[in-house]
Amino acid sequence: MELLIKEIIGKYNYWLYIILMMIGLYAIIAKNNLIKKLVGMNIFQTAIILFYISIGYKKGGTLPIIEIPHGHHTISPESIDISKYINPLPHVLMLTAIVVSVATFGVALAIALKIYKEYNTLEEDEIRMRLRGK
Amino acid sequence: MEVVHSIRPIAAILVSVSIIPILISCGKDRPNFREAWTFVAGVLKFLIIVSMVPGVMHGVLYTFNIVHLGPGLDIGFKVDGLGLTFALVASFLWIVTSLYSIGYMRGLDEHSQTRFYSFFASSLCSTIGVAFAANLITLYLFYELLSLSTYPLVVHHQDPEAKISGRKYLIYILTTSIGLVLPAMIICYHLGHTLDFRPGGILMGTGGKTILTILFFMFLFGFAKSAIMPLHSWLPAAMVAPTPVSALLHAVAVVKVGVFSIIRIFTGIYGISLLKSLHLGTAAAYISAFTILVGSLIAMSQDELKRRLAFSTISQLSYIILGISLLTPKGMIGGIIHIVMHAFGKITLFFGAGAIFVATGQKYISKMKGLGKKMPITFLAFFIGSLSVIGLPPTGGFYSKWYLVLGCIDAHKISLLIILLISSFLNALYFLPIVFKGFFSKEDDDVDVSKYKEAPLCCIIPMIITATISVLLFFYQGIFYKLISIGLKL
Amino acid sequence: MIDNHVFPILIVITPLVCAFFVMGLYWVDKRLCLPLTILAISISFISSIITLYSVLTSGTIQYKLGGWPPPIGIEYRIDLLNGVILVIISFISLFNLFTSFNQVSHDFPEKKGTFYSLYLLFTTGLLGVVITGDLFNLYVLLEITSLSAYAQIALGDKKRAPFASLNYIFIGVIGASFYLLGVGYIYMMTGSLNMGDVAHLIHNLHHSQAIFVAFIFCIVGVWIKMALFPLHIWLPNAYTYAPTASGRIIAPLMTKVMVYVMIRLMYSVFGIDYLFNTLHISQSIIYLSSAAVLFGGIMALSQDNLKKMFTYIIISEIGYMVGGAWLGNKTGLTGAILHIINDVFMTFALFLSAGNFAWRIKDLSIHNLEDIFQKMPWTSTGFVVVALSIIGIPPTCGFFSKWYLILGAIEAKQYLFIIALILSSLLNIILFFRVFEKSLFSSKPHVMESKETRSYNLIEEAPANMTIGLLVIGAILILIGLYSGKIVSNLILPFIPKGL
């Protein structure tokens, strides 16, 4: 039991992203409404973004903005305590990933709109029925 | 042996495809021009091939390499005695058949003649390609091209029957070549690291007994154009094609490409000694003996003349395989020279069948009684063709059967000898009655024979030519004998 | 060689920049869109040829973006494999412009700017995916490619295309996210995103569970994007209903580039040692790809629509390449790479011929193709050549890649894969001859030759640029086949990693 708690509490960030991802996946697969599916897709992507953010984080860390003490022009690398700063790279990467996911969402919404104009509905089974009936 | 690089092999192959654009541009508007070009190409092809005879007789090996594909893999050509023998027969008969086609196709006012002549030309290109292939991959390439270019000829009539036959043809030929020959060829390359045909074979000492045996049967049945049983039934089905196709392709070019490929496998890939040590020759001999006997028996029961000829072809093709399977010099010569003898004999028979069809529209043997009186030349030629296929003097067929018998005796295979003799007897039983009933039987009451006359001259002349040659081959077969001996290095 | 260094970046940057200009130019003068697109892709094409040439003469090229040294900055790394694929992508993209400009004017008279802009973005994305040496950069470019593909597909058939495209988006996003997740794990373990660097660092982490998870996520993500059976469901509809001009470029390139990505991940990131000695999954992947080969063939057989049949052929061919790459020997990988090259051209030619047929016959059901040989002799000739290549008849190129694949399978003793490959050839025979029988030999009672009307009255070919385009590609199929020996020994074998 103790081990289990350690697994869950100690790695809570992973569990969170997995739960979010599964919610998203569930929506993509099981929902009938196309917009709900799209939202599921977005949750799915967000889960991965959170995962990246969490791996860059350090307990007690802060933004890696290094202040040069007054009167100095440079700072020697040895004097920087790396453990104080979080890793900025995953966060920067996620800026790009967010842009990608927003763009995807935009394209998908536009296409959903096109579908709506054609079929007057966004329910998947109705559209499928219409396609089959054709 | 002197190796000479020469463009003659490739020229001989390409001359027939190079006229296809001309044929298409002539089209149906200028049929005379179109047929003249076919004829010119045929003669040119034959002359190029003949020009190599003296060289090969003196031990020259003409080679031509197109492209190098990888280590031990080339697309290239090599003219040796065996290939030259086959090429000579095929290209000569193309000229004759072109003449015959003109009479036949015009006589029946067939449609899509341009397509017919174009694919005919490309079939011949592929046939010569197989004959001159220097290695297995080149052979396979032309083998497949031949299958594909024959397909439109089989489906020529475009009716449901022709389409079903076309499907059958493709399924048998392509399934076996892709399903058996292709993997066998790749395994062969994996074992031997080359696919060149070499006098002693390339597989000696490369693989275990089991794998080599399996490989052998994959090749033997994979080249289904040789119509070995149980992969024979495409051949009778393919008889829906116009008669010139049946005559040249399904009695000479296509089917003998199958047999020729098997000969190459025997001599160039396995080599005699390896086959002997694995006892594969004996196995192949008995398989072909079965085909010989069963083919002849089925032929007897066929009433449609072309189908009877087809089953006869199935049986005769296995003579050739039997001959080489004996692995004795005389047997092998007998088998290979049977390619020549059977070609002339059988094509005469097909020409005869076609001539009867053009003149009377009759396909069935039972309705041919008394026709001989009205069509004496046709039936006489048919008679000579029959004699050659049966193997009676004074025709060339006697010569090859004689060697086959000697081969059997050399190999101490008396049971095979007996099968050969029984089959010859059966041949006589199913061919000669046609001729005798044609000449001597009284015609049926419902058939009015009197309105019939001989087929057009274009149909008759080729028949006379091939029948005459069948007889001449009885006296002058030395050149083929020599070429084959050189090819087999005896 | 310093002046050479500008070319790798030109390959990607020119179409990217021009994509924006094309959009803007549309408002100035519609007619300028096409020339600018052609110019942009031509520059890419020429640059990729120059790059390939310098790879051939002086080995692998590294281009540091922004001047940052590799582990920190993004690196473009061009070796023989992606050098060749760059040339092929830009060639196909350029060639397709010539074969389909009239199709584009016909389909999108008012949306030319949008279309060409998407077209350029798609090309940029593909070229970027292939050229980059950075795992995250690959993700971004992959999404650029996918987004422009989604948008292009949605422009197709009014009724079905948007829905097909949306389904593609759902599955495509899952695929890309899986890949991103995998990259996240790789980054977590190695702290690097540069392929070469990761390959180096991963050596000591072979038994790490996290690396295994990373590998599985990356590979499955890529499989989803390449439509490996059973992850293929998005492909048939998306490619069938895409507009002709886009289908012609998306269908041949997208899946093949993903196969390239898989090979790159396998051999340049995770490494042979990890793939075949630590992991023991190659056997099951070969079973999977054999299933893909057969499934694609069987499903193709049950299709009535010509284009849909082609899409299932793509699924089958994907099985060839994945299987070949996982055989774990030199010959198999050679076959897989050769098949990437061949299959790009074969699929391109298939969709070219489908487009040409569709120009005359609106509904591409097979029974509508009756007598098409009479009507469109040149297109049909091209179609026959492609069909033979897909069946694997020499001397077309399809035969030779199949040759290497089967040879590799024999060496690896994967008999099931051999059987699948051969059965697939046989299925393809049935598949194509079913079409030929219909199109070559009409069942109508025929008029006798002498009375027949003159044939050229019947001919209704597609526009010359499309027909000639198809014939040129047909000729290329045969040429690649004949020169496959040279291609293998000069372009593919030097890439094959040592130790395989």
Biggest interface, chains and residues, is: B-C, 42 and 38 residues
Structural class of chain A: mainly alpha
Question: What does the average pLDDT of chain B come to?
Answer: 86
Strand content of chain A: under 5%
Please identify the top-level CATH class of chain A: Mainly Alpha
How would you sum up the global shape of chain A?
A: elongated
Q: Radius of gyration of chain A, Cα only, in angstroms?
A: 22 Å
Secondary-structure content class of chain B: mainly alpha
Give me the strand/helix succession of chain A. HHHHH
Strand content of chain B: under 5%
How many strand elements of chain A?
0
Give an account of the 3D structure.
The complex is a heterotrimer of chains A (134), B (490) and C (500). With 134 residues, chain A is an all-alpha fold. Chain A has helices spanning 2-10, 12-30, 34-56, 88-119, 124-133. Chain A has one domain: Helix Hairpins. Helices cover 69% and strands 0% of the residues of chain A. The mean pLDDT of chain A is 86. In chain B, strands 1-2-3 form a three-stranded mixed beta sheet. In chain B, strand 2 and strand 3 form a beta hairpin. The mean pLDDT of chain B is 86. Chain C has 500 residues and is mainly alpha-helical. Helices cover 75% and strands 2% of the residues of chain C. The longest helix of chain C has 35 residues, at 244-278. The interface between B and C is large, with 42 and 38 residues.
Mind sketching the topology for me?
The complex is a heterotrimer of chains A (134), B (490) and C (500).
Chain A: H1 2-10, H2 12-30, H3 34-56, H4 88-119, H5 124-133
Helix pairs in contact in A: 2-3, 3-4
Chain B: E1 2-5, H1 8-18, H2 20-26, H3 31-51, H4 53-57, E2 60-70, E3 73-79, H5 81-107, H6 113-132, H7 136-154, H8 160-192, H9 209-222, H10 234-237, H11 243-270, H12 272-278, H13 280-300, H14 305-325, H15 329-360, H16 371-374, H17 376-390, H18 396-410, H19 414-440, H20 457-475, H21 478-488
Parallel strand pairs in B: 1-2
Antiparallel strand pairs in B: 2-3
Helix pairs in contact in B: 1-3, 1-6, 2-3, 2-6, 3-5, 5-6, 5-11, 5-15, 5-20, 5-21, 6-7, 6-11, 7-8, 7-11, 8-9, 11-14, 11-15, 13-14, 13-19, 14-15, 15-17, 15-18, 15-20, 15-21, 17-19, 17-20, 18-19, 18-20
Chain C: H1 7-28, H2 33-58, E1 61-64, E2 75-78, H3 80-107, H4 112-131, H5 135-154, H6 161-190, H7 195-201, H8 209-226, H9 235-241, H10 244-278, H11 282-301, H12 306-326, H13 330-360, H14 372-375, H15 377-391, H16 397-412, H17 415-440, H18 464-482, H19 484-492
Antiparallel strand pairs in C: 1-2
Helix pairs in contact in C: 1-2, 1-4, 2-3, 2-4, 3-4, 3-10, 3-13, 3-18, 4-5, 4-10, 5-6, 5-10, 6-8, 6-9, 7-10, 8-10, 9-12, 10-12, 10-13, 11-12, 11-17, 12-13, 12-17, 13-15, 13-16, 13-18, 15-17, 15-18, 16-17, 16-18
